[in-house]
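Entry 14. Structure prediction run on the chain below.
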Amino acid sequence: RHVLVTDVLSALRHVLGDDKVRSGDAVNPDDLHDESLHPEPRVPCAVVRPRTTADVVAVAKIATEFGVPLTPRGSGTGLSGGAKPVTDGIVLCFDAMKAVKSIDVNDHVAVVEPGLTLRELDDVLSATGLHYPVYPGEMSGSLGGNINTNAGGMRAVRHGVTRQHVLGLEAVLIDGTVLRTGAPVVKSSSGYDLTQLLVGSEGTLALVTEITLRLSPRFTNGATVLVPFATLDHVTEVVPSIVASGLQPSILEYLDVLTMGSVTSRAGLELGVDATIVEKTLAYLVIVLETRTREQLDSDLEYLAHHVMEAGALDVYVLPDGSGQRLIEAREQAFWVAKEAGAHEIIDVVVPRSAVPHYLSEIFTLAGEFETFIAGCGHVGDGNVHLSVYQADDEKRHRFLHELFARGVAIGGAISGEHGIGRDKQAPFLALTDPHSLRLQRAIKNVFDPQGLLNPYRLLDERPLP
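Output returned:
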């Protein structure tokens, strides 16, 4: 085995140069994990940082020649163990490939490399009047990582998730073939849609080296509205009517009172909610409205306030611009708050929007049966429920989670709405997914990656991580 590792390192250094290859003590520990709550430390053969598609082709050919697993890595912000290394494998870090190749302001298209972060793209687009509207909650996340997990986020209620904004890809197959999919056009009826097949595939089919994105106009008028309710049921029940009203909120989030208190405390944020209202509140609805004109915004705010008060809101607060932005930023840090509080699991089940009240009621009852504490928030506008689970007993927690996922799937939902399956959700995914679907997915995987080298031991691959 030692000889094989030496040979692989020699081959990598020969084609890439020493500056793009790290091994042993020279490896940065930050490259060896993502933000999964379940670390599984492994020592790879090498961590490589390609700078061009040709570099990626060279690495893929070496992996194929030696039968070495490849683990692609973006910014390492994933939450499901999708970028955990494999012993003696190769970690392929894309953070050195971050060029903005072109921006077409007429066609609203950008062509970028996968290592570019959401924040870097937003900075580049700030002067164009355009933006990339997918905000999954961590602006340091890379576009490549977003592509591989089909990232969503708070703005999905209006703008959709990543796949709605990907027009085409350049990707390297495991044998070194360079594949181009899609085109900078908004529709096509020309054969199988390989672009959408690769989006959300978690790096198990190909290595994305270039992304063609659809951009959207920026809205210049917006407001953040905070609405306290006496029960979580009131929050979730009013959401379908808000969506049906035609207001088209950009963000429609719920936070239970514990999560709201935790994220605002961590951010040092005071929202000015009356103390008597706070005493009665068990859940909050956070709504962001964005429009083209101030007049339209004022009209929408007036309609929204009347609508939620009729639905049982305790009050309505239109937050000052600074406070509104800070609240959204604080909400985006909910994962870190839960992690710091010692959460044992973070889940992101998605169910039909209308089923959220019933599902949450069932899950809170279930948590009591399993002596498990849960707290949560979520993209209630699209049915994506986020829960922090606190249960130190592994066996009890696994049984609770299986039942939680099973009940979500039973009402037409899915195990992960945006974080992906990775390794952390692999067991319930395999247990609860239609076996015919799994068989077809494995057949597709075998066409793309017959040796099982691309991001193995996760998603469909049941082998234990070596």
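Residues 12 and 59 are 7 Å apart (CA to CA).
Filed with the rest of this week's runs.
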